[in-house]
Amino acid sequence: MMTAPPPKPTGGDEICPLCKRPKSEHTNKEMLDCSRKIREQETKDDI
Ligand SMILES: [Zn+2]
Fold this sequence. Notes:
Elements: H1 28-46
Bound molecules: zinc ion (ZN).
Zinc ion binds at residues 16, 18-19, 21, 26, 30, 34.
């Protein structure tokens, strides 16, 4: 049988904790913005 396998859902679809969307749905710019804000929050906790 030469039928193509159905597309598998990617198992490691991480959800962005900032906007609660899969990281794969982010544009490059959104990804940069989100990771920067997350990092800012983490450093804020440190004070
Ligand atoms: Zn995000």
